[in-house]
């Protein structure tokens, strides 16, 4: 993936010298004169590293077992001065289930700071520390931004002393704690959001996404449940368990690297992924941002398919039929031809785009007395108050069927909507102050807070795409919105 | 490791190399350097057998290895196990993951004299060592390599012909590949390594990077206050490696050196 600009021969000077090869040539062929000149001559001050006189007493057959035992001993008794032990934090409660482990709310014993501890399960790992967690750590180190979840440190804990070398340490990612997640917030009808709240949150969301994309990273799991809100009212993109770096294609003739298309929770999955695209880019996250934006008004996911086919049908019903007219490149999608040819196709033709019809009337300006007009049930509307057409425009663009017509996060961040009244604020702290308890989605449906939250019987949100066979079990599906 | 000898989180002053954990535990400096070269040789050869490239996987693994032994001694941690776990971890971090058992199998196939004795326990050893490694590296896994900086210099010498600069950059590239055997990466920032080794390439080929009347320290726009002597010192580290291994190629005997 990384470009190797020079011919292989050159890389290999010493890294690939073979066993039988004659004593290594110190310099590549081209440098036919040995490196003397100015550099040599000041030799005196440099201790030559020397060949070292190998004390070739041969490899005295050390008792391997003993050696391993010693190693193990060091491992067991090492005091690890390098990273903190998780006992520095006091676990308070379990707040969720991440891509690769449980999440706990905890308090730092010394500073009192609240954190989220994300446990990394190692038990069933044949490959050591999970690569997904490594990616997440590495990416979050790169992504210090106020709209991206803040990784404070990585901690470890020693688990019970089992006789095997496995399962001895557990690692935790330590994040700054966020009081709320967007899914939980939106599902609470008591939370009344005005247009400026929505706009501020969207601005944060898009700004965070832009930072991500500028850092050449795809999130690949955009959804309301992965958007956290601190108690100061600042949005943070979270859960980088599926995120990965991408390579920008400089030359359009170069083949794009292929990624798995089993990403993004079904309800937020864009048409290109549903049609089997594996050369996708940042626009998949933009679609997710569009779904989240609509959800700000509808207060629940706008397209809740239970299978990939159903999801495509729902997209067609809301955003119009998928065909080369609206999306010239759709014929290049691996599954398009086969799907379009099916008799009872998941790509119904002749559907008009009715996104505007369904949502515009919800996008009300705040009334003159400043009262929010957003309705948590997404049904009632106040005809006296005009709709915000700039918001509608942005939403239309974010949810364009053709990925090339969706704006980049950078373009979206500069959308005219964000410059019109009411302009976004620094945070939605005032909204947070009106909410008494933590609104993590996890606690809404389950656990101590069971029964609170969503009106009626909403299906449980599907979890991470790769972990599920087909989203939610059949029978649980309800087309609640449209 | 004495904290005051640290320049940044992961670079140390040259003096730090005289008081490494291994030296404090009774090794001498030359022995330690030899041990480091042997570990790196294992990384490079096993990596090559697995189709890993010097940039980034082998380069990153080598940096992990050198950093690890600034915090731990060779006496306490086998270099052959550490070497594999560095390679294994770098593969995952750089998104060219290799299965642990494949890495171990390659190691045992390539270096039966060294890894044969571990039989089936090698995978578990590597897994265990990976955790120590992650602890030691403090999960600071993002490592910059000199290659990127080097490529940027390709366009910065208007006074040189295209052929000359391409040639010099290619030679410097090879120097960088080989510099992993030295302790350069724990005393010098990646960009400075690129500068030093490009300077070495110019010197070796007798190229004139800038016109006579200009500052011969062409790097001073990027790294100020870096005198020619220090740059030369960095180059010597790599040249010393070449002269040291000319007579005694690393792991010539196929066995690790013992004290």
Automatic annotation (TrEMBL), chain A:
Subcellular location: Nucleus
Annotated Polar residues bias: 1-19
Entry-linked SUPFAM superfamilies: Protein kinase-like (PK-like) (SSF56112)
Domain Protein kinase intervals: 89-418
PANTHER family reported for this sequence: CELL DIVISION PROTEIN KINASE, CYCLIN-DEPENDENT KINASE 9
Keywords associated with the record: ATP-binding, Kinase, Nucleotide-binding, Nucleus, Serine/threonine-protein kinase, Transferase
Family the UniProt entry places it in: Belongs to the protein kinase superfamily. CMGC Ser/Thr protein kinase family. CDC2/CDKX subfamily.
Protein name: CRE-CDK-9 protein
Single GO term (MF): ATP binding
InterPro entries per UniProt: CDK (IPR050108), Kinase-like_dom_sf (IPR011009), Prot_kinase_dom (IPR000719), Protein_kinase_ATP_BS (IPR017441), Ser/Thr_kinase_AS (IPR008271)
PROSITE patterns cross-referenced by the UniProt entry: PROTEIN_KINASE_ATP, PROTEIN_KINASE_DOM, PROTEIN_KINASE_ST
Catalyzed chemical reaction(s): L-seryl-[protein] + ATP = O-phospho-L-seryl-[protein] + ADP + H(+); L-threonyl-[protein] + ATP = O-phospho-L-threonyl-[protein] + ADP + H(+)
Disordered, as annotated region: 1-59, 367-387, 448-482
Residues binding ATP: 118
A cellular component term, taken from the record's GO annotations: nucleus
Pfam families: Pkinase (PF00069)
Extent of Basic residues compositional bias: 449-458
The keyword Ribonucleoprotein is assigned to this record: no
Automatic annotation (TrEMBL), chain B:
Keyword Repeat appears in the UniProt entry: no
Domain (Cyclin-like) ranges: 41-135
GO biological processes: nematode larval development; regulation of transcription by RNA polymerase II
Keywords assigned: Cyclin
GO molecular function: cyclin-dependent protein serine/threonine kinase activator activity
GO CC annotations, alphabetized: nucleus
Record-linked Pfam families: Cyclin_N
Family: Belongs to the cyclin family.
PANTHER family given in the database record: CYCLIN
Name of the protein described by the UniProt record: Cyclin-like domain-containing protein
Source species: Caenorhabditis remanei
């Amino acid at each position: 993936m990384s470009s190797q600009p020079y011919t292989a021969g050159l890389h290999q000077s010493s890294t690939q010298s073979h066993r039988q090869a004659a004593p290594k040539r110190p310099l590549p062929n081209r440098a036919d004169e040995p490196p003397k000149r100015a550099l040599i001559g000041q030799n005196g001050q440099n201790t030559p590293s020397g060949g070292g006189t190998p004390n070739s007493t041969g490899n005295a057959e050390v008792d391997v077992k003993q050696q391993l035992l010693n190693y193990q001993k060091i491992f067991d008794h090492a005091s690890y001065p390098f990273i903190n032990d998780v006992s520095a934090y006091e676990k308070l409660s379990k707040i969720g289930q991440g891509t690769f482990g449980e999440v706990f709310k905890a308090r730092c014993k010394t500073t009192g700071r609240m954190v989220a501890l994300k446990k990394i399960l190692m038990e069933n790992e044949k490959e050591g520390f999970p690569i997904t967690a490594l990616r997440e750590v590495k990416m979050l180190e790169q992504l210090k931004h106020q709209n991206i979840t803040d990784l404070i440190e990585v901690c470890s804990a020693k688990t019970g002393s089992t006789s095997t070398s496995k399962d001895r340490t557990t690692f935790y990612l330590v994040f700054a704690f966020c009081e709320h997640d967007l899914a939980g917030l939106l599902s609470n009808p008591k939370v009344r959001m005005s247009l400026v709240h929505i706009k501020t949150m969207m601005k944060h969301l898009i700004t965070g996404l832009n930072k991500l994309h500028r850092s050449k990273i795809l999130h690949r799991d955009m959804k309301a449940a992965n958007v956290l809100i601190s108690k100061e009212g600042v949005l943070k993109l979270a859960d980088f368990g599926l995120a990965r770096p991408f390579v920008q294609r400089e030359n359009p003739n170069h083949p794009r690297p292929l990624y798995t298309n089993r990403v993004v929770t079904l309800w937020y999955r864009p048409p290109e992924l549903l049609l089997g695209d594996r050369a996708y880019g940042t626009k998949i996250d933009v679609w997710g941002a569009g779904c989240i934006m609509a959800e700000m008004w509808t207060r629940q996911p706008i397209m809740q398919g239970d299978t990939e086919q159903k999801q495509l049908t729902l997209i067609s019903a809301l955003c119009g039929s998928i065909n080369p007219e609206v999306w010239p490149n759709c014929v290049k999608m691996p599954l398009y031809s086969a799907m379009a040819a099916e008799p009872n196709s998941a790509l119904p033709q002749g559907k008009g785009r009715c996104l505007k019809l369904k949502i515009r009337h919800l996008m009300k300006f705040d009334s003159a007395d400043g009262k929010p007009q957003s309705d948590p049930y997404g049904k009632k509307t106040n005809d006296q108050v005009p709709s915000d057409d700039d918001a509608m425009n942005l939403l239309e663009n974010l949810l364009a069927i053709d990925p090339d017509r969706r704006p980049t996060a950078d373009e979206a961040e500069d959308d005219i909507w964000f410059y019109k009244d009411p302009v976004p604020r620094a945070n939605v702290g005032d909204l947070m102050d009106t909410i008494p308890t933590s609104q993590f989605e996890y606690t809404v449906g389950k656990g101590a807070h069971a029964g609170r939250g969503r009106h009626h019987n909403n299906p449980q949100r599907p979890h991470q795409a790769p972990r599920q066979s087909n989203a939610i079990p059949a029978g649980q599906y309800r087309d609640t919105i449209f | 490791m004495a904290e005051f000898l640290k320049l940044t989180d992961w670079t140390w002053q040259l003096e730090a190399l005289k008081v490494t954990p291994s030296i404090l535990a009774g090794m001498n400096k030359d022995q330690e350097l030899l041990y480091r070269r042997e570990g790196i040789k294992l990384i490079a050869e096993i990596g090559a057998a697995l189709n890993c490239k010097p940039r980034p996987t082998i380069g990153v693994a080598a940096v992990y290895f050198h950093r690890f032994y600034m915090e731990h001694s060779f006496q306490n941690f086998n270099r052959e196990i550490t070497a594999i776990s560095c390679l294994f971890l770098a593969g995952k971090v750089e998104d060219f993951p290799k299965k642990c058992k494949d890495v171990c199998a390659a190691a045992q196939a390539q270096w039966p004299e060294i890894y044969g004795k571990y039989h089936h326990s090698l995978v578990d050893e590597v897994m265990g060592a990976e955790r120590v490694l992650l602890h030691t590296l403090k999960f600071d896994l993002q490592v910059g390599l000199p290659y990127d900086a080097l490529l940027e210099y390709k366009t910065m010498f208007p006074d040189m012909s295209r052929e000359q600069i391409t040639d010099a950059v290619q030679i410097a590239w090879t120097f960088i590949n080989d510099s992993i055997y030295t302790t350069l990466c724990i005393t010098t920032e990646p960009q400075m390594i690129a500068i030093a080794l490009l300077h070495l390439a110019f010197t070796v080929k007798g190229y004139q990077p800038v016109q006579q009347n200009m500052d011969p320290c062409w790097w001073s726009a990027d790294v100020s206050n870096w005198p020619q002597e220090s740059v030369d010192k960095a180059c010597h580290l790599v040249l010393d490696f070449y002269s040291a291994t000319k007579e005694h190629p690393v792991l010539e005997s196929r066995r690790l050196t013992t004290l």
